[in-house]
Each structure stands twice: as C-alpha cells, then as structure tokens.
Fold these 2 entries.
Entry 1:
Amino acid sequence: MSAAVVTGIGVAVPNGMGKDDFWAAALRGESAIRTVQRFDVSSYPSKLAGEIAGFEPTDHLNGRLIPQTDRMTQVALAASDWALADAGVEPDTYDTTEMGVATSGASGGLEYGQRELDNLWGAGPDHVSVYMSFAWFYAVNSGQISIRHGMRGPAGVLVSDQAGGLDAVAQARRNIRKGTRLFLTGGVDSSFCPYGWVSRMSAGDVSTSEDPATAYLPFDERARGHVPGEGGAILVVEDADTARARGARPYGEIAGYGASCDAAAKHGGAPGLRRAIETALADAGAAPGDIGVVFADGSGSRADDRIEAEAIAGVFGPGAVPVTVPKTMTGRMNSGGAPADLAYALMSLREGVIPPTINVRTLAPGYEIDLVIGEPRPWQPGAALVLARGKGGFNSAMVLRAIA
Amino acid sequence: MSGRRVVITGLGVVAPGGVGTKAFWQMITAGRTATRMITAFDTTGFRSRIAAEVDFDAEQLGLSHREIRRLDRAAQFALVATREAVTDSGLDAGRIDPTRTGVSIGCAVGCTCRLESEYLVLSDTSKEWVLDHNYADPHLYDYYMPGSLANEVAWEVNAQGPATMISAGCTSGLDSLGHAADLIREGAVDLMLAGGTDAPISPITVACFDAIKATSPRNDDAATALRPFDRTRNGFVLGEGSAMLVLEELESARARDAKIYAEITGFASRSNAYHMTGLKADGVELGAAVTSALDESQLPPDAIDYVNAHGTATKQNDRHETAAVKRSLGDHAYRIPMSSIKSMIGHSLGAVGSIEIAACALAIDQGVVPPTANLREPDPELDLDYVPLEAREAQLDHVLSVGSGFGGFQSAMVLARPGSAA
C-alpha cells in the first residue's frame, strides 16, 4: 500500500496568503482579528472576524469566471494554483486520469446564494443568475478545481463542519492507496455575508467581545466563544513513490486518521474525541510519545475546551505534549480550519518550530495541557497531530509524520 | 482488513408516489409516475411548474413535534427512511456496537427549504440585506451547515463511529454508499447507515434550474413530463425523497442470519474536468468510472445483467450515458436492459442515487427490472434496450447503476446477488 505524502501547500488565511506569508505571520503571532469590513455588522452582537484582506479575484482568475463564483471558490482556486506551484507539478507531470480532487465545504457559496435569494424574492424568478445552480452548492470547489487543472480522477466532497477538512484529506489518502497518483484536497470556507453571519451567531458560541485581544481565547480561564474566520488551505497529496520518482520534496506523510461522532445526549452524551485520537495513532502505528505537537481544535467555548483538554491529557499524559492553536490569529474557518492547521503542522515539521497560540494568558483550572503561548517554540520534528471538531459532534484526528 | 465484504441488509425509502419501500417498489414496477403540478408553493412566474413531490405527513409517520419543528424536510425524510431501514434489517438496536457504527448521507442542496424560509423571515421578504438576527431560528446553524443531516441519523441509531455528509451534487447518493462501503472494507466500522436525502422543491432551487432550462416545462402534461431516451424529452423534473440503507460487513450479517439483499462489489467516481453543468457526448469519464467499478468487483463487462441509468431526460445526458455504457460494456451493452426510474420518481438530486441503489437491490431480490416510463417515441439515435413502459422479469446476478452531476462528477456502482460475487 502506497504512502500518501504532502508535497504542496496552498493556503489563504486572514493573516497571510501563500505559504511564505502565512507562515511568517504565524511565527510573528500576528492577529488578523478585527471588525468585519465586508458588510455592515454594526447591528449585530458579534462584530469581530478574521477576514482575508487584499484578495483581488482579478489577480488570480480570468474575468469570465468571476461572476460565476462565490468568494469561497475564488480563494480556493487561487490556493489550488499555489499548491501545485509549490509542489512543482507541471501540467504534464501526471496523466489527467491519475489526479483527483476532494474538498470539504461547510456552508457552500452562501454569499452568492443570499444575493440570488434577494434577486428571486425582490425581482422574480427570471432574475436568478444562470450560474446560481452551481455557484453556491457544497460541491462547487471540487468541481471548479477539477476543471481548472484538468483532473479527471476520483472526486469527492465531504461536509462535516470543522471536521470535514480532515475527512476530505483522509478521502484523498484512501484514493491514493487505491492507485490515484495525486490529489488536490482540503477546504476553504467564507460565507462572510449577513446570512452567513446570522447563521453562525445562531449557534450561540460566537464571541460578542469587541476587543480583538480577548475575543477568542481557547483554553483560557476567560474563554468566551470564538471568532469566525474565512479561508483555508488546499494541499497537494501524492503517492510517495511517484513523488520521490519525480524528485519532489515532501513536507510530511499523512500517517494516520481517525474519526468519530459524539454520542447523542439521549445516549449518554459521551464525547468521541479521544477515540478519534486513539484511532488515528493506531492507524499511524504511533505511540503517544511519538507525537511532538498537537494542533488543537480550540473551540474557545468552555465545555468543548474542557473535553479537548481532557482528551489530550488523557492520551498523552498531563502537560506531556506541546499544544497550539494558531487559529487564535485567524479565527475559526469552518471546513478551512483543519486544512490550514495541516499546513501549519507541515511547516512545523519542515522548519522545526511550533507556531504560537496568541492572546491566551492563563489556562482554566484543571486543563493539564502544555499550551504554546505567545512565542514560537522549537521542537525536534517527528510527528504532529491535528484535531478538528464540528458542531453536532463530529471529531476527526490526523497524524502527520516527517519523512525519514 | 482486505477481504472484508459489504452487503445491504436493510432498506428504507421515502419517495414520491408513496412512503415506504413497499409502496415505492409497487409504483416503479407498475410503471406509474408521480410527477405532477407543484403544490409546495405558488409557481406563478416559473418556467417549470412541475415536480415529483412526496406526500409526507410527518406526524402520521411518527416524527415528534420537536423533530418536525427542528428538522428541515430533508432531515425528516432521512429519519423516516432510517427507521424503516433499521426495522427492515432486523438489527437489535441494543446489540449494535455504537463505536463500530457510522453514518454516510448524500445530499446535494442541504437544508434548502429551511434556508429559504428562514431567509424570508430574516430579510422581511428581501426588504433588508442586513438580516435581523433577532428573528433567527435557534436551529439555523443546522440548516447553514447541512452536515447536521449526518448527526441526526447518528443520534437516531446511536452511531458513534465516523459520520459525514457527502455532497457531490447529483452523484451524492451513489458516492455516500461508496464511501460507506470503503469504511467497512478498511475496517473503520462494521455497520453503516448510508444513503441519501434531498428536499429541493423550493422556489430558489426551482428558479436555479429554470435559469438554465434544465427542467422540463411540460406543465400541461405533468404526469408524463420526464421522458428519458425519448425523442420528445425536454429536461428533467425535480423530485425529492430519501433512501437509507443498512450496510454491513458480510460475516457479521451472516452471523446474525440477516436477510441480504445484495452485495456492493465495486464503486468508482471520476470528474470530467470539462464543465460545471455540461457533458461531452463521448462519455469517457463515466465509462472510466464503470470500468473501474467493474475492476474493483473483479468482473468482466459481460457479467452485468442490468444497468440502472442516470436517465435525466436531457438530450446531453441521454447521449452521454448511452455512449459511456457502450464504451465500458462494449457489445454487451446491446444485450441487456437499461432503465431510468427517474421517469417515475423525478430527479431528487443527492438522494436519487441511493433510491436507485435501493431499486437495484430490490430488482435483484425480486427478479424484476423496473421500466422507463413515458418512453413512447424512442430517440432514433439511441440504440440500447431502455425497457419502455413495462417491467420485466429477469434473474439479475450483477447490476450496474450510474450517476452524473453538476461539477462534472461521474459515478458507478456494481451490486451482486448474494453469493454471486466474484
């Protein structure tokens, strides 16, 4: 069975676009959390977000494509270009049938959707765009990426909130093992429009703080919810043997994956995160001591923070492994969050340094985790664990390992 | 874990024309159609005013008042189908191992009905762009992020293994079953509740398809509007519904002496990398998906006894899939029946692939090929046996089902009669 390795990173997060910028911003601990600019949030209780600034669609896409696509697709297409360029994959490196696409999207192209709902109900059915049918649905990014890069292999789209970003990468690995040579995979979400904003707020855990320095404090004693972010990452995942044969330099191997679902309240409500972690470790053939860093989901809500801290301390021992949440700089990016965390983890494997969690000062009592606060921390790269949890009880865990 | 095999041991169907597997099977084998004038909303001003609607009385079907309040129509369909599937499987709920049980649910357009109705409240019928959050439903996030459909099914059956929604447009219902089969084969789980659901008959979705003239405007003859492979075809008719299947690892199904409808022996998906809505006439990528699904099944093309077609009654689909089937099955394609049940139940987007697999499982079990309804004037350019109007009896050992959708996705799945797999 072939190993699946990551050879290209395409990332667009609020504090940096492209591999170099996003990594430099992460090491500087640079926050992109500020008052939403894209639409008027003054009437809403929650006002802060991580927005991608300076993304001009015309810099990346031809003019014909722009009216056909939501922002989440425009960003994803740019990220897919960067990922392939980073991997050094040329259009003729592989046969078109040897390349596939698997992405996650939590809310589709909802900004586009809100505009067309407005057209329908404000002006009538014949004012709905001819592009609406494929601009807003959840599959749009996999479809558009496959078309842009001529990828005719397997396709997939998974929706499981924040966890979906890891589930998509796991599906890519599954297909690499079945014989596909290359996958573009990950997730990008936006829906930074009033409907997306109101929908997020309805879940009750978006921070109402107006201070960017204290709005999103996962594991902190002052935790009070999270700040939404937009963006994510698209990665190039390749068959290890063919990647080596073409001279690629992989960032790391996708060594293990596990997923679970929390029990329903009526069935006892047991959290499933620890099971997902243990499944991923077993899948990777790794012992807890092999993991050198955990990129936590970092919900920022008291109950979920506690569950995650207990799961990490339970598997690895109290304070036994560095834990970090770079999302404190960007906000939580729905299906884009975990792919961005994979990108952080892969850069950590390459550079030997762990990006920090910002703004957090004092852990809530009883959280026995070693959170990397404020400053980057050097480490001896071996293996990293990325965690992602979604509303409704999705848990996913992925182990990345340095290439020997 | 190689060598683990996946079988279908329970079926639950919510389809237009009658809720429940029995009503569904009777309808499609009788060749009756459920397409009609839309009753869900006032269609004045729309081009296509027809659909295949489910007559769905949620309360009578056992949903609680809270479930009815909380759940989008797509989730309500899925819960009813899930309950039927679990009952049908004979599984003892108390003996299911929650951590070895997962959920994979296909859906193309999520909780569109609620997203649209909530939008009307929040925007005061589109008078306000900056929506008034004070009117937000407490469950709005579940409609915004439709992976909630997977959670609802998981909570229903106490599944605590992997759960996800698969949303590859109109192939979602096949892809979700393919994903579920993969998870069982690789040993992540032993049991999956897998299938699809969609409830797209809302103004915004109807308007989307109106805008690109994909749906049939045959408003004066709704009952025969969806005419796959017919010279007079003029587009698909939107449908809605759900099919949920119990998928089980073969040995555990045998150990509990379960009724096995069929084995899932192969699945593959491909992208055409061509166009978000267009199809090339050559059918290359769908043909490649079929070939790959046959390879996974370790079957030659001439093992296939029946093809359940995508059959959406658009000219480009009819030609595309006919070419794909010929390309992948060769001359054998001319010797076997190929029919489209969408002619009767409409096109329920992300649900229909699973409903069609339920039909294939029943076709194998009952030895009956359902017909293509409304096929009275065959397109002279299409030369396969499309089973017009009337069902046929036939022993089916291996069945192929294909799907094709927006985004350029192409999928194929192969089922085998129990004991017939290679």
Entry 2:
Amino acid sequence: MTIPLERRLAVLRSRLQVNWITVAFLAVLLAFVDGFWLTATQGAIGAIERRQSPVTRWSRDSILMLPLFVLAVLAGLLLARHWFAASRLRFVRVGATVLLITLMTSIVGIAEVAASSAYDYRLQTRHLEAGGASHHLSALPVLAGTDVQAGVQPCVGVCAERQLTLSAHVRGVALASKLLLLTNLVLASWVLTLLTDRVWRQQPTSSSRRGEPSNASVLEAAVS
Amino acid sequence: MDTTPNSKILIPRRALLKMGAAGTAAIAVGKAGSIVVPELRRQGLLSPSGFFDATSVVLANSIYDEKFPTSPLILSPFQDELNILKALAPVPDSEYKNWASPPGPGYGQQNSLGNDRHQRWRGYGNDPDPVVYRVKVEVNAHSFTTSQVLPINSSGQPTKSFDSTRKVYAAGTVRTLPPSTIYGFNGTFPGPMINAEYGKPALVRFDNHLDENPLNLDRQDFGSPDWTFLTHLHNAHTASESDGNPHYSMKYGPQHHGYLPQLWVDNLYLNWPAGNDDTEKQTFFWFHDHSMDHTGSNVYKGLVGLYPIYDPKNGLDMGDERQGYRLPGVRTDNPDGSFDVKYDIPLAIFDCRLDDGVTNHLDMHDGMGEYPDAGNPRKHPEWWGKTFYKHFPNHGFVGDIFTVNGTAYPVLEVKRRKYRLRFLDCSVSRIYEFKLMSSTQGPKSAVSLGYTGSEMQGQYRIPDGQQCMQFLQIATDGGLIPTPITRDSFELWPAKRREFIVDFTRYQDGTPTTKGDVIYLTNVMKMSDGRMWGNSSRFSPDPKYMVPVLKIVIGDDAPDDSLIPTKLRDLPPVPANWKSLMDNRLIFEVERGSAGGEVEWLINGRQFDPTQVATSLKNKAGNTPLAQQKMGSFNLWEIRNGGGGWVHPFHLHMEEHRTMMRNGKVQPPAGNGHPDDISKEDVVALDPGESTIVYRGFRDFVGPYVAHCHNLVHEDHAMMFGWEITP
C-alpha cells in the first residue's frame, strides 16, 4: 500500500517543526567555529600551498560546510525529540539535546579536518619527493655505514619524512577533534541555555488544536 | 500583580539562566581579549590573519612535543678567565711554497679536486700576493668550564647523573663536566682569529681532517654525517668560489654539500671593499661552516672563527689608537707576521645545552639514517654533560648556558681605560640584548631564586642589577658608522656584529670607577625558544630577567691614547632616485612550510634548490624576475617575514645592504628609525610580520651566491635561496 505524497509531506513537515532561525543560528555558529579550528590546524600542519589568506579560506570553507552543519544540528534536535521528549527530567532533555547536537556537528567537523589533513598530506608528500633529490633525503650517509639486512629496506630519507609528516597529521587531527568537541559542547550548551524556549516551535497539530498537548509541546513546556 | 513597595521582584529562573549565560560569555570574551590582544600585538599578529597564525602556533606547539635537557648547574661561575684570542700566525712563504700543491692563480689550484680557479688573484691596484694561512678542520675536545656542576632537572631539583660508562651518580652528587666533542678550526672553539688588513689579501687553506679522531672521541649525533665542511667568511666581499656557499658548492668545486675529509680548498679573501670604495670597508667578519643542511650542527659543534679587519689607509683604523680615528687599541706586530691589538677584544657569544642523560634523542636526522652508531631514538647517559643538539626542533634551538669565546660565564679583568669590544652572536637561534650592569649582591642561581623550566635559562641572575654604564656604538655588520651612537642596550641577532667603545674609567653618572669594581655584561632578552623573544626592552621588558654573561673586574690604570670619536666613516652614497627601482624590485617572502623536517622553511613558497636561481614574487611592475643581477649593478630587494610568530635574521651574502624602507616607511638616517637601519648590514633583522626594502650592489665578482635565514635551524631546513651575479 502506498502512502500518498501529500501525507508523506505532512508527516515530514510535522517532524520538522523546528525553529529554523535557531537551527540556522546554531549551524552558522558551529560551522564557523569548526572552520576556525580547521583553518588553524591547516596553519599548524597543512601544506604551504593552502596556508595563504586564512581569513578568506576560513570564510569560504565555513560557508561551503554550512549545509552539512544545518543537517547535523537538525539531526541532533530530531533525535533528541525522538528519544527524550517523553522524559520528565528537564536536565536529561536539555542535556541530551546538547550532547546530540555536539556529537552530530563534531562528526561533521572532524570529518572535515581529517579530509583536509589527508589532502595536505598528499600535497606534502609530493613536495617531499620533489625535495628529496637536492637535499639529503634520499641518500644514506657516505661514511657512517649502515648494516642493512638483505631484503629489508630501511625507512630512511623521504620514507622517514613521510612517516613523520603522517604522524604530525594524526596528532593534529586528534588535537583538533578534542578542541572541536569541547567548543561545540560549550557553544551548544550556551545557545540552548539562551534560546531554550525556541528550540522547538509549538506544533500546530490537530491534537493541540483540540487542546491536547502534543509530544513536542510537552517538551517545549518542560524545557521552558 | 502585587505592586506594593515591599514586594519582592521576581525574576523568572529561565531569564536568570539566560542572563547568566550571556554575562559569562561577555566576561569570558572580555577577559580573553585583555590577555590575548597584548600578546598578539607583541608577536606582530594583531590582525585577522594574525589571530589564525597565533592559534596555529599554539596548535603546532602541542602537536610537535619536544623535550630538551636541563644543563647541570655551574656551581662556580665567573671564575674562568675570558679567552682573549691571539692572532693566527701566517704560514711563512718558504713553507707554503714547498707544499705539494701551493696556492696559486692557475686553473686547478683553488682546491684539491683540481677543478676550479680563483676569479681574481689580486684586488685593485698593486696588492701584494696573499698572506697564507692554514686552518685544519679537526675533531677535538672542548670544556666550557672548569667549575664543578650540580646536575638538576627542569624543576631545579638535584637529579642523577652519569659517566661515559653509564654509571649512575645519585642526585645531589657534585660532578666535573666531561669535555664535549667539537669540530673546530684548528681544533679549537672558537677557532683561530685572523687579524686582517685592507689591501693585504689573505688566503686560507682549509684542510679537512675530520676523518681523523686521534683522541677516539664519541662524535655523538650531530655535525655533518659525512664530515664535510664548507667555510663562509661572513660577510666579506669575496668571489663565489671562495665564498663557501652551497649554491656554488653543489654546482662547482666539490659538487657536494661541502668538502669531504682529506680535501682542501683555498679561500682567497682579497680584503678589499666593494667597488674599491673606502666607504664600503668593514671591520669585523667571522668565518663559519656553511655545509648544506648541516650548517647549524657544524657551527654548534664548533666551526667558528674570527676575522677582524683593520684599515691601515692613512692609519685610520689600523689598531693604533694614536692614529686615524683614535679608536682604542694598542698594536703589537709579531715576528711571525701576525699582529695583535690590545684593548680591542672580540666577544663571540654562544649558547649551548648539555645532555642530562635522561632526555630521549629523537631527531628527523635519525630517521634519515645519518647517525646509525647513536642508535636513536634512545637516551644517552654516556653523553651526560656533553653538548646536546637537536637538528630540527619545531621551535628552533636555544641553549641554557651562555658562553663568551668558548667559556661559560667567564671573567675579564680590564684596565681603567677605554676598550673596543667587538660583539658577535654565533649562536644557532638565540638573540641577546645586552646591558652593562652592576650588582651589590652579585649573581644568584636562577634555581635559588625559585625559577624553574625555561626561566632557568642562563642559570644565573643579578636580582638587584642596575644599569651602570652605556655603550658607544661605533660599528655594525657593515663597519664603522658615520657618527657614534650612545646606547643603554643593544640587540645582537644571530650572525650580527656590533662594536662599541666602553670607557671603564667612569660610570654613566660620571662617578669614577675604582680598582676591584665589578660590572656584568648582562642579557636582558628572554628567549625561551627559537621563535622569538618573550621579553626585551622593545617589547614588554621583564625587569627580573637580568642574566650575567661576563663579569668585568676593573683593574689598574693604564695609559689611554684613544679618543671618543665624533665622526667616523661616511656611508656609501645611495642615488637620490632610488625609488625609481621600487616597481621592479625583487621580492622574497620567508615563511614556514609544513612538510616534514628537511624542507620545513621556505622562501616564496619554495625550498632551497641549489641548482636553481630563485624567482621573485610578482612585483608592482607585474614581473617575477629571476634573482640574477648584472655585475656592477644595484637594485632593491624586498625581504618579507611571512608571519607565524617567528623572527628571522635574514642574511644576504656578498655586498652589504642599506635598509631603505621598513614596513612601508622610508627609514630616516642617523638612528631615528629602527636601531638596525643606521648603517650597512648583512643581516636583516625581521620582526614578526615585518618587511624591509634594501638597496644593494653587485660588484667585482660573478657567480652563484645565496641568501638565507641565519637562524641556522631554518637555514638547514631549506630557508635559503640561490641567486647569482652574471657578467
């Protein structure tokens, strides 16, 4: 049995009864803050080609990532409503909402940093390979003899540099991930504290029209 | 609603929560701003981009975690006498003419490979044949102090120590330091001093004996791994084959990073001024290693020598205070052909760090298989008390023991008269700011004053230090300045030279000195890592940071025929229309790269390629010219600091330059602008985010040269570019 398109849209609309201004505000805020960490991480360990004009790059990357952050905030809100709307404890409802938004947006942010680092690593290894010829990256020392076991290729020169670069990226992504999680948590908490009564809009459902509270309005009332 | 006056005003809990959140945010932003903004301003990062740069710096510090040892505390500082270098004797004609390969102007006579020649054998006019010196590059042992030491950790607490057999000594055991292994010119640190004179060319045969190790010393894990050397006389007016730069050496001559063991090279120093112009004469050079990728480790390992140069023309500056400019100095001509000048003392300042035996040795260069015998990464208790080096530290390399002429915290007894002091910073990365101070309590160890960590750098402080004398500056890198300048303090950046007259007969308030009085040459610039200073007189001075480096004790009276000069050497003229060169100037931006270690530091986004001549960034005329200049030409070069919270002492080989503009402003003459811009220089001191436009000439020689950061960690990791002079 197929559900009519109109009905499906109505269900979707009812599920998306959120205050879009609040969602947008959170998404923009977190996109730009996470973009800041992305840009700063690039500045610390990224390829030189991508390190010019950090402000421009930050603005561009944050705007490009904005749709994903809108989706992440929305997902966090809807999951919170789905799982915790019925909870009687306000702390649990608000806390869960904060945590879920933090989690969703941080996943997007961390993925962004990791992808950027991977791209940087690719550029840097090319750079290393190009530089290896003129510096002493490709040659073993002339006098200080190394006992190289037959068949075992030691990781020296460009290989060693690649490993160290990769290791720096791993540490960089790990550090950026912690910072992203922390700042997203603080900011989501702060925004939800300030805008707690606007997190979910009152749903104009038939039950509410009849004077019966809906799940969302129950949560809204509770959060308020 | 109850509106009676006594009723409580009820604020909804939600509103209270919101107000709290908003208030906390406002306070947090305000507080953070009050801390961050001054710090960003200090680092030259107070801009939107700078904020990102500053954050990147903090992140990088966390990502590249580095640990350095804490040197043992020298228990009896200021007991060892300052090593006042004697002039190296030349090789007698009768001797060098009988060498198997005597020096000469012909093809094949410039090095032992037989593949090069001197561009010019004589300077202008009828210069005599060069005075010949021989300097062997040797492995040797060097002690920085005779004092006993107390091994301490980064908290200042006594800690265990070791000996060469790895035997452990309990915390609190007072020890004697083992000598450090050095690579030295003639096996000494600093190496020999050649007293040179304009009009008398000098030829130095540098002879590599680094493969010989008669004392069977442990070479540790720094110094060029294939034992090459390449000597640069910084910053003489020298032909490229004698300049000792890797742009030349990788293409010609050794066609390698430097000269391998058992090879020799004759570096011919014509001792003539650029363009045969007397105003281009300089006063103080130094020679140091310049092997590609290992300059820092070789210099730190001891390859440093001094080369004061005098001007006998009309007796102006020939080391005789009775003639010419009447600068302090009493000359003695030695029977061996050398001469020494009393009361004229070069002071080579150098910082080092000694191994504590418990710090892990892990370096990019280990990963490259350069020091297999060291077996890194691992700790080296057997190297306890010997010099510790890290080739590629993320923050640059600074030591925590300050030395003068190879001795830690020496003492110098001076006569009651005027002296000429020639300062050289031969440190890897450290910048100093010096004052002359007195102290009634004398030096106290930083540990005893409660300092820990990087605050212990320098080991001693004079908590009650007061400035008591001034310096009268008479020369910079580029030689004598037109008019002497009185200074309370001066900054000394890596590779820079500064010369002063100090009158030890009286204090700055006019009070006469008396025999036995003590004055400390004191460093007041705190620089806990190789990035830049933390505190200095120019930026947020720390009145508690007063580290005595040299103890000066006033002795007996002595005759003094020197005079305080009022006028010295004029600057070479700069054409009035120099701005016509602005649009098509060459632009070079130094910046931090991001790939692994060897190519970490870049210029115009590129690592040093010794086979190429660099390309300028696009200039106002829309061109990206090659760094190629016609012999006899002049041009403007712009050197920019690309940021990142670093300072860069940027060195341009060949002729001295004049800073015409700094940060877009024309630099006024006579000391009203930046302290470095009063005269000719060969190192551009670039504060964070600064740019300078310098005017320079390209005369007398052709061939490949380099320009590079003289923070040697940066230089070794590709912050260098090749340029050349064409016929």
